[in-house]
Amino acid sequence: MKISELMTILDARLLTPAADLGREVRTACGSDMMSDVLAFVKDQSVLLTGLNNPQVVRTADMMDMICIVFVRGKQPDAGILALAEERGIAVLSSAHTMFTACGLLYAHGLRGGVH
Amino acid sequence: MAAAETIELHYQVPGDDFTRAGEASADLKARLKALGFPPDAVRKTAIALYEGEINLAIHAGGGAIDVDVTPARIHMVLSDHGPGIADIPLAMSEGYSTAPDEVRSLGFGAGMGLPNMKKYSDEFSIESTVGVGTRIEMAVLVS
Questions:
Q1: Which value does ipTM take for this structure?
Q2: What span, in angstroms and rounded, lies between the C-alpha atoms of B63 and B6?
Q3: Residues in B 73-132 with any Cβ partner in A closer than 8 A
């Protein structure tokens, strides 16, 4: 699934204008606990989270993730967005709750990727 | 990098600014990538060191990281003068944490830090003395 499709499905806003929306997201992970995210390795993932601090971007970067979706309409600050742009990570914000956002992506064929 | 070459790096992790935890691992990750290390080794190193940085910031009031990089091995030493760990096997078990609620609200303190460090490193050892500090050695082998 392309980031642009994910945006449509989640009715999400793009917060990093320079992002390449044609990049392919193969698996997804939804969590507010960053250590749980770090326990799971899979390329080309999107991270859905309700947590709003710079460690979200650091975690995504360490995991080579290419997209972060802030759920429940969370708006990360300029410092978080700058860090994401520097790392080439697309940042989206969706008004959906975590449960609904994950459910919508699952219903469109995206999977968790944990074996 | 040349076979006989060793790159030595030193990082200081501040204890009072949680938002900066991760700078050392991000820097090391970028350097290893630029040196052409395999993506798998780069990622394992970055995750293990990142969890270590978070631990230094959360539990130890900061600390020092020394890294030796050779073509075959990325070796990291994390040392601090924090409170130390009384029961290392308990601290190493998944889900056990002494982190305060405010740390959990930042997305950490789930008791996965040390287990993740061990999981992503090929060599792992920890020594700790209560009231003195903790020293962790980790290495990622490059195949």
A1: 0.87
A2: 23
A3: 104, 106-113, 115-116, 119
